[in-house]
UniProtKB/TrEMBL annotation, chain A:
It comes from the Bacteria. It comes from Pseudonocardia ammonioxydans. This is Uncharacterized protein.
Automatic annotation (TrEMBL), chain B:
SMART domains: Molybdop_Fe4S4. It comes from Pseudonocardia ammonioxydans. This is Molybdopterin oxidoreductase Fe4S4 domain-containing protein. Residues 1-25 are annotated as: Disordered. Residues 1-12 have a biased composition (Basic and acidic residues). Residues 42-98 form the 4Fe-4S Mo/W bis-MGD-type domain. Keywords: 4Fe-4S, Iron, Iron-sulfur, Metal-binding, Molybdenum, Nitrate assimilation, Oxidoreductase.
Length: 150, 779
């Protein structure tokens, strides 16, 4: 069942997202809003991983042996300065959108399998992930003029 | 007339109790210079007080071009003649320690006196060269809550249409940004729903983080006159300190700092579970009820009691009082605004009223308070993080209206994101992308969080700092150019208080030396910069305060803060008029939303809204899809643990706040003998429990430390909540903001000044005696 592959992808991507938020929170701590919010959003990603656990237990999770073309990699290390911040946040946005789409597709599968527990988990996760994408977009749009044209 | 010394011994003055629904009686307070009698005064000049957000109407007494005293205006709707200690004595600061000559930093780094032309030429030269090399984004303006509507509007036009910079904010960000944000989120636009008159009509008063007895003494006098009357309202006080308000309260909820959202969620849940929701009204006039109910459901009294550190029975009692009230009035201030999840907590108060349909009727209303006398003007005129007339930066049609008003290309008006908030503005200066910073009438070197960092920014070689102020301050000391500014009473203009009351304050005397109004300074700057409209007219084209006012009210036409029928002439005949003032409402408007139609139409609203947890903006399309169409928005989020939480190294929680004698950083009140004598220096309030554990008694000196700095001051033992430390923030030499952390609310961007983890240690001299014992005068 392909769902096991998607559960594996989602689990890995959410863990990466949590780590990346914390990396940004501490690495860009001089941006005070990111420092506090980054830790909060990292914790939220952890909480979503916890909501995945019963599903991965029931379905199992499997890592695809297809070649990875676009991988949801974490930030690994941080860039510096206003431009670096912009690029780090944009990377986070890519990662968050990967996570969001993966939840969406797991949700589609949950509907098809009439899996209420999975639907509940998706209902819990989707608004959160959408919100953090909204936040990143807001923050990126606010920072871009000064970083790129200031 | 009441005894002149009353207001130091008794800040609220004699009682004039009265029954519900009857007019608040007059009581005229007056204070004149020693030896001057009322009949000696040559001229009484119409004005209002600028030393808190109440805006009490008064007349300034003048003899031979000198201010000799003040008298409250009996016909003024705000104070009916009363004045508080700051209003009564504050005018005495106008002739002390004034800056009278412009200063320019010379090549050796010293500030030296120069003439106005030399100082302004240096400013314009730097501004021009930066504008050519780096564009408008290199410029930032940080203003005050003390300037007048004419000044804010003029600066807004210069910044947005002349320079084209979004970097403009006021210190109102520190005091009132959350009031505006919460009203925008709930009602679609800024604008105080309620009126002070509601105090006469309410049967329950809820004060959320609002120590009104010290912050707005005349407003508290108004409440006391109801509390001492024949049918007093119930009073609920949310405050970690046992304040005067708490002492009079029916229910006092001494919440743990940083837990306000848990509290309002608990109150909301209790209302829902009691069946107190007016479902017909909610269905007709709000959206979001079911989502709200789901968010607050986990906040049962036991859980809220645990999070907030209060007795669950008290929470229930407070909720019952709200549920049973026929006309509940709520006020909200810094205990919510400068704390964790500020906007969400303030919105929670709006929700309580919306759920019961208790808004827009006499007695039933919300007062999201302001900290400063002219904060409302900074918000409505667009010199802070807003566009003039409560226009929406994200609405192209609103930006086009401004471009039309100003006769400029819409593309010159920055509107790609909200105007830059104060904390971000200083961050850009820190990073070196803002190189020109003009600070008017405010003292960020004492009032901003984490002062070490702020001083570093202001002293940086990379930032050209222009400061206008009436007095030498901690901030003027760091400036490159200092302009001496005209004070209240030395210039003409209008300002608007916390309940939308506009007052005209006329010039009573000339400013000293070369001091000028900020309006004149900015107009002079703009002329020399040669900003022009599309048709080649100088921008701004006005010259006098009255011309600026006429332009401002023209810009307000059709918007929620419409003042298009307001004139200086009208304000000379009515002491205080509440906007909107239009052809349909020529004498003003007591309450907003009397028809329960809110400003949430997509094309009309000031904001499309935000996610309260992260501050993510709601897009135009998302807002349109909500189909709010005049219905208020019910919004809620879960409580999250506050940042800077106490830990083993810093086990106590610092809250900062105000004292009745002083305003802001004491630049004025510190120069008034009566006020300064009664509160000359900072102190540290501890509970008896904490003092015992630390091993100090009242009067002992203690050191309060946080990861960012430390201050020393003597101890007062008070009934503050155990685990909580209180320090007044007014004092530059023992500045509470040496300790505070840099963090802000995600929606209002208001700094969180009441959430710092600190430790407190005794200070002893080598001889083993405390410094306080050696200085007996301290207590």
């Amino acid at each position: 069942m392909g769902l096991t592959v998607y559960l594996g992808m989602l689990h890995a991507a959410e863990r990466t997202l949590a780590e990346s938020w914390r990396l940004v929170a501490d690495g860009h701590a001089a941006e005070a809003d990111l420092h506090h919010l980054g830790h909060l959003l990292g914790d939220r990603a952890d909480a979503r991983v916890a909501r995945l656990a019963p599903l991965t237990e029931r379905y199992g999770e499997r890592y695809d042996d297809e070649p990875e073309r676009l991988e949801a990699e974490g930030l690994g290390s941080l860039r510096e300065g206003p431009l670096g911040l912009l690029r780090d946040l944009q990377d986070l946005y890519l990662l968050a959108s990967f996570v969001a789409m993966t939840w969406d597709l797991v949700g589609q599968a949950a509907q098809a399998t009439r899996d209420r527990e999975a639907l509940d988990a998706v209902a819990y996760a989707r608004p959160q992930v959408r919100n953090q994408m909204g936040f990143l977009r807001t923050r990126l749009e606010q920072a871009a003029p000064q970083a790129l044209a200031g | 007339m009441t005894d002149q010394d009353d207001r130091i011994r008794d800040p609220w003055g004699p009682r004039t109790p009265h029954a519900a629904g009857t007019a608040w009686p007059e009581r005229v307070d007056q204070h004149l210079r020693d030896g001057v009698r009322a009949e000696d005064v040559q001229r009484w000049v119409r004005s209002a007080c600028v030393l808190c957000s109440n805006g009490c109407g008064l007349d300034i007494g003048v003899i031979d071009d000198e201010i000799v005293g003040v008298r409250g205006r009996a016909d003024d709707r705000v104070n009916r003649g009363r004045l508080g200690p700051k209003g009564l004595y504050g005018w005495k600061a106008t002739d002390r320690d004034r800056l009278t000559k412009p200063l320019l930093r010379d090549d050796d780094g010293h500030l030296v006196e120069v003439d106005h032309d030399t100082a302004m030429r240096a400013v314009v030269e730097r501004s021009r060269s930066l504008l050519e090399r780096r564009g408008g984004l290199s410029h930032g303006f940080y203003t005050s809550g003390q300037l007048m509507a004419e000044e804010y509007y003029t600066l807004g036009v210069i910044g947005k249409a002349g320079l084209g910079t979004p970097h403009m904010d006021g210190n109102t960000r520190l005091c009132t940004a959350t009031a505006a944000a919460s009203m925008k989120e709930s009602f679609g636009a800024d604008g105080q729903p309620g009126s002070y008159d509601d105090i006469e009509h309410c049967d329950a008063l809820f004060l959320f983080g609002h120590n009104v007895a010290e912050t707005q003494t005349v407003l508290w006098a108004r409440m006391l006159d109801r509390l001492d009357g024949p049918d007093p309202p119930a009073l609920v006080c949310v405050d970690p300190r046992r304040t005067e308000v708490a002492r009079r309260a029916t229910v006092h909820l001494p919440v743990r700092p940083g837990t306000n959202v848990a509290l309002v969620n608990g109150l909301t849940r209790a209302l829902i579970h009691r069946g107190a929701v007016d479902h017909d009204w909610v269905r007709a006039h709000t959206i979001g009820h079911d989502e709200l109910a789901a968010v607050v459901e986990p906040y049962d009294p036991a859980r809220v009691g645990e999070i907030c550190g209060i007795d669950p029975a008290d929470l229930q009692a407070a909720a019952d009082l709200f549920a049973d009230a026929r006309a509940p009035l709520s006020t909200v201030l810094q205990g919510f605004y400068q704390s964790h999840q500020a906007t969400a907590a303030a919105v929670g108060v709006n929700n309580l009223h919306l759920l019961r349909g208790m808004i827009g009727r006499p007695g039933a209303g919300v007062l999201q308070m302001n900290g400063q006398p002219t904060a409302q003007n900074n918000r409505e005129c667009g010199a802070d993080g807003d566009l003039p007339g409560f226009r929406n930066w994200d609405n192209e049609a609103h930006v086009d209206e401004l471009a039309e008003l100003w006769d400029v290309d819409p593309i010159t008006i920055p509107h790609w994101s909200p105007p830059t908030h104060a904390m971000q503005l200083f961050r850009y200066a820190e990073q070196g992308s803002i190189n020109f910073l003009w600070i008017a009438g405010t003292n960020p070197a004492v009032s901003m969080p984490d002062l070490g960092r702020i001083r570093k920014i202001l002293s940086s070689e990379d930032v050209f700092v222009v400061v206008s102020d009436a007095y030498p301050t901690e901030t003027t000391a760091l400036a490159d150019v200092v302009f001496p500014a005209a004070l209240w009473g030395e210039r003409t203009g209008t300002f608007t208080n916390a309940d939308r009351t506009v007052h005209l304050s006329e010039q009573a005397v000339d400013p000293p030396g070369e001091a000028r109004s900020d309006l004149d300074l900015w107009l002079d700057y703009a002329r020399r910069m040669d900003f022009r409209t599309r048709s080649g007219r100088p921008l701004p084209w006005w010259r006098t305060p009255e011309e600026a006012f006429t332009e401002w009210v023209r810009a307000s036409r059709g918007r929620p803060c419409d003042q298009s029928a307001l004139t200086y002439e009208l304000l000379r005949h009515h002491s205080g008029i509440q906007w909107p003032v239009t052809e349909e409402a020529p004498t003003g408007t007591a309450r907003l939303y009397t028809d329960a139609v809110f400003t949430t139409d997509t094309d009309r609203c000031e904001t499309y809204g935000h996610d309260l947890l992260t501050g993510a903006t709601v897009t135009r399309e998302q807002h349109r899809a909500l189909r709010a169409d005049g219905r208020a928005l019910l919004k809620a989020v879960e409580h999250t643990p506050p940042p800077g939480s106490p830990d083993t190294d810093f086990p106590l929680r610092l809250i900062t706040g105000r004292t009745v004698q002083h305003f802001h950083t004491r630049t004025k009140t510190g120069r008034v003998p009566e006020l300064e004598r009664s509160a000359p220096r900072a102190w540290v309030e501890l509970s008896a429990d904490d003092a015992g554990r630390i091993g100090v008694v009242a009067g002992d000196a203690v050191r309060v430390s946080s990861p960012r700095g430390c201050i020393e001051a003597p101890v007062r033992i008070t009934e503050v909540r155990p685990g909580t430390v209180f320090v007044p923030f007014h004092y530059g030499e023992q500045a509470a903001n040496e300790l505070t952390l840099t963090a802000w609310d995600p929606v209002s961007k208001q700094p969180q000044l009441k959430l710092t983890g600190v430790r407190v240690d005794p200070v002893t001299t080598p001889a083993g005696t405390s410094t306080a014992q050696q200085e007996a005068a301290w207590d």
